[in-house]
């Protein structure tokens, strides 16, 4: 039983140890922040969604990347479209809330909202993200 408990508690204890180490040294914990990618039909929709995300304080920054061609399967058919891509910098803990909010305002039936954790980066920039996206 003790061994089972120790194995089950390892991820929790490791996480706490990483947080303590980061607090003491000021180092970054990989995965604390994430990049989210959201595709939009046009620039108007992209700007509206980006502004809504910022108004809700769900991101520190949103880049609106210019038009790109996209190929995808939709309802069994290959479709070609032009999309605008949002790149959202936020806390990983906000991804669920961000995804739910974007789905509620996005015109696509199934909007593309995917994220990747930030492993490393400029420590000052990563700190800036944390300062500009409130904790849960």
TrEMBL record:
Pfam families, sorted: CutA1
UniProt keyword terms in alphabetical order: Signal
Signal peptide (residue range): 1-17
SUPFAM superfamilies: GlnB-like
InterPro entries (UniProt xref): Ion_tolerance_CutA (IPR004323), N-reg_PII-like_a/b (IPR011322), N-reg_PII/ATP_PRibTrfase_C (IPR015867)
GO molecular function annotations of the record: copper ion binding
Any one GO BP annotation for this protein: response to metal ion
Domain of life: Eukaryota
Family: Belongs to the CutA family.
Quaternary assembly: Homotrimer.
PANTHER family reported for this sequence: CUTA DIVALENT CATION TOLERANCE HOMOLOG-LIKE, DIVALENT CATION TOLERANCE CUTA-RELATED
Name under which the protein is recorded: CUTA protein
Organism, scientific name: Scytalopus superciliaris
């Amino acid at each position: 039983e003790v061994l089972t408990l120790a194995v089950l508690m390892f991820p929790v204890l490791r996480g706490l140890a990483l947080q303590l180490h980061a607090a003491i040294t000021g180092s970054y914990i990989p995965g604390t922040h994430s990049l989210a990618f959201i595709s939009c039909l046009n620039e108007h929709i992209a700007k509206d969604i980006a502004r809504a995300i910022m108004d809700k304080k769900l991101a520190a920054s949103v880049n609106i990347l210019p038009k790109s061609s996209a190929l995808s399967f939709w309802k069994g058919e290959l479709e070609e479209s032009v999309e605008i891509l949002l790149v959202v910098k936020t806390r990983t803990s906000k991804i669920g809330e961000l995804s739910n909010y974007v789905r509620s305002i996005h015109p696509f039936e199934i909007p593309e909202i995917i994220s990747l954790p930030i492993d490393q980066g400029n420590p000052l920039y990563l700190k800036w993200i944390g300062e500009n996206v409130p904790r849960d």
